[in-house]
Design a protein that fits this description.
CATH class of the largest domain: Mainly Alpha
Structural class: mainly alpha
Strand content: under 5%
Distance between the termini: 9 Å
Bound molecules: iron/sulfur cluster
Largest sheet: none
Mean pLDDT: 86
Low-confidence stretches: 1-9
CATH topology of the largest domain: Fumarate Reductase Iron-sulfur Protein, Chain B, domain 2
CATH architecture of the largest domain: Orthogonal Bundle
Number of strands: 0
Order of helices and strands: HHHHHHHHHHHH
Helix content: 55-70%
Number of domains: 2
């Protein structure tokens, strides 16, 4: 659990980088970064490294250097697809994937996003739909995303058609029996993670 007493770092604060670093170290598994031996196994295992501005190994070096603004502005966590290849191969058993999630949460809280990256917007829509319905409906999610990013959406039509062909694209709105339980759970998590 993050320490709720740590102030949200303000822009331009000289202590900003240290506060963010401290907050990351207080997330579950965050302090494990200190045991990273910079072997690069995570980067070599990651299928998305070529898209990332910093490979996972580099990102952890930046964290330890205290260059947290650069870390939070990095597109690396937003490209992470949670495949866990890095985690299962890390010789120090560092929870790389979990740390990527923590960095995304911190970037969202700080309002810092990698320039031009579309994933933060998609995550927001995803989160809103889960809070409202308890689950997502592919067509609604992609429709809302398409309104924000029509050009990108058009470029993904082929993927959409593939999902249609394999019947993995719902048009009927999906809803849990009692979505309020999920909404309450999300609210509680947000209260704990500040
Ligand atoms: S595999 Fe583990 S120890 Fe090696 S660079 Fe990545 S996080 Fe560090
Ligand atoms: S979990 Fe994320 S960072 Fe790790 S290998 Fe997979 S995509 Fe890369």
């Amino acid at each position: 659990m993050l320490n709720n007493n740590i102030e949200k770092p303000s822009a331009g604060s000289p202590q900003r980088e240290l506060q963010w670093q401290q907050r990351l170290y207080e997330t579950p598994g965050g302090r494990e970064i200190l045991g990273c031996i910079q072997c690069g196994t995570c980067s070599a295992s990651c299928p998305l490294t070529d898209q990332m501005d910093h490979a996972p190994r580099e990102l952890f070096a930046l964290v330890r250097d205290g260059a947290m603004e650069e870390v939070l502005r990095s597109n690396t966590p937003w490209f992470c697809v949670s495949c866990y290849q890095c985690m299962v191969r890390c010789p120090r058993e560092i929870p790389v994937t979990d740390i990527m999630y923590a960095l995304k949460r911190m970037a969202a809280e700080a309002g810092i996003f990698p320039k031009g990256h579309k994933m933060p917007g998609l995550y927001k829509i995803f989160n809103q739909d889960v809070a409202r319905y308890g689950k997502i409906t592919g067509s609604i999610l992609m429709g809302r995303y398409g309104l924000r990013h029509p050009v990108d959406m058009a470029s993904k039509m082929g993927t959409g058609l593939g999902l249609l062909k394999t019947r993995r694209f719902d048009f009927t709105p999906q809803k849990m029996v009692d979505p309020r339980k999920i909404a309450a759970l999300l609210k509680r998590k947000r209260t704990h993670i500040k």
